# Entry
Amino acid sequence: MKIAKGFVLSNVGNEHVVMAIGAASMKLNGMIRLNASGVEMWNMLKEGAEEEELAAALVKEYGITAER
# Structure
């Protein structure tokens, strides 16, 4: 999995937001606010994490089952 081209994570004040730049801004007009889990997932995706790795990180962090 990977982050789509043209999307960047930025800090706005004390918020983490994903913004579209360039041609991607034609698809998304606005920002997506991420919580701490979202930022962690974003960073893992930047490193090339696959779905199973993302799920494992959430299982570890929140003590939930992978199925959930």
